[in-house]
Amino acid sequence: MTIPDWPFHTTQAGDALREIFSAMGGDCVLDDRGLTLTGSGRILGIDIDLGEVGELTPGIAAVAALAESESVLRGVAHLRLHETDRLAALTREINALGGDVTETEDGLRIRPRPLHGGVFHTYEDHRLATAGAVLGLAVKDLEVEDIATTGKTMPDFPELWHGMLAGRG
User: Fold this and answer.
1) Enolpyruvate transferase domain location, by residue (predicted)?
2) Is residue 143 part of a domain?
3) What is the CATH number of the domain that holds 88?
4) What is the pLDDT of residues 91-143, one digit of tens each?
5) Number of alpha carbons in the 13 Å side-chain half-sphere of residue 97
6) Would you say residue 56 lies in a domain?
7) Structural domain count, the chain
8) Alpha-carbon distance 129 to 26, whole Å?
């Protein structure tokens, strides 16, 4: 997948995805076309301090729940104080799908398990909604409770997401 117009230099937390997804077994290339992410067919677990990019934790947790080995996400205890307690919510929602997530003092420990469909509750939190959408790419019959909550940061997320899935975006 290529994300056009990805900046060569940015202070946005999302730029850390290049390094994170590479460590998880993907290949990330940034060139004039944009950022191209290529999967290998395998997702590797990761042990990482996300303290500087805590807002990425829900999405990384979703990907880690699909990995073939354990992941430890550290440095994000402050996520307990966001729109919802994001660590508790991620633990509850991934476990409800058959996952094996436990909270640590400052993050999450995610052990791979086969996941099944169900409702992924969003707690009126846009980051939880996008984490559910990511899981829905790989987990059959997963329904995100309230995808409209993504409107906080990206009002056109549902349309863009459906367009991407349809091969338009």
Assistant:
1) 2-159
2) yes
3) 3.65.10.10
4) 999 999 999 999 999 999 999 999 999 999 999 999 999 999 999 999 999 99
5) 32
6) yes
7) 1
8) 23
> Residue 89 pLDDT more than 90?
yes
Look at residue 3 in the predicted model and tell me its pLDDT.
84
pTM, full prediction: 0.92
End-to-end CA, the chain: 9
The yes-or-no answer on residue 93 being catalytic is no
Structural domain contains residue 29: no
Residue 89: C-alpha distances to residues 3, 67, 79 (Å): 29, 19, 10
Domain that holds residue 150: 47-165
Summary mean pLDDT of the chain: 93
Q: Which of 55, 83, 124, 145 is catalytic?
A: 55
Q: Which residues contact 114 (CB under 8 A, 6 or more apart)?
A: 98
pLDDT in tens, 8-47: 988 888 889 999 999 999 999 999 999 999 988 899 999 9
Residue 150 within any structural domain of the chain: yes
CA angle 120, 92, 134 (to 5 degrees): 40
Cα–Cα distance for residue pair 133/130, rounded to 1 Å: 5
